[in-house]
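task queued by scheduler; priority normal; single chain, no ligands, no partner chains; default sampling; output format set to structure tokens
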Amino acid sequence: MNMIPLADQAFKPADYKSEVKPVWCPGCGDHAVLVSFQRAMAQLALPPEKVAVVSGIGCSSRFPAYTNCYGFHGVHGRSLPIASGLKVARPDLTVIVASGDGDGFSIGGNHFLHACRRNLDMTYIVMDNRIYGMTKGQPSPTTEPDWDTAIAPGGTGLSPFHPLVIALASGANYIARGYSGDVNGVASLIVQAVQTPGFSFVQILSPCVTFRPDQQKSWKPLVHEASVPETDDPSVAARRLMSDDGFNVGVLYRGKRPAHDPKPLADLPPSHLEAEFAV
């Protein structure tokens, strides 16, 4: 299932670019992810005013300021409940959530589980550099257990969080992984995520050149296309993801669950709400 072919583009990537200059470190993978986002929106021909970008806290969560779309910069780990409320109230909007491995999988981990379970029609993009890049390089939930740093000498010794496995087990309808070094490839994953009904999760390996400079050179040769085609069978996807080396890229799972479609309260008259609280 590949729905990428679209009508003639009515917009250009520059139409989704704000006048705010990104303050990410030169060489940060998030720059490339931003370009991928702009290209994806142009391919989808979505009017900028019909797109809302929601974020929490962290380097990646600066995303809304750099787009010419509606944006909401929330608090740490709370981007998904904010986005969920927005999607329920304004189902006509295309809702994109931008997060990082710290913001999304640590303090925001519980929201991640339930956003997958609820399966609202929105897209969750997580730029994963396996480090807290904005707060001086602490290990994050996805950091390797033996990664030695002054903050965690000898490594944390903790098993890394596996977001794709968690997303599948929790009910996400689309699961993919990309690499920031492949701008067009990531744009394609975002396009398919938006086109797929329900909750779509895209993990993007995005090197931190400041606190993990080793990633920029070491990740590129490790990244590879998945050796097997995408599946809509959760049991097949589970076996595949549990043996995943962390560097497979592409669409790894696309389910068939219909998106949750709650009736917006905004469509109900005030008298209906008053009746609910009558004594």
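post-processing summary
- The mean pLDDT is 90.
- The chain has one domain: 24-276.
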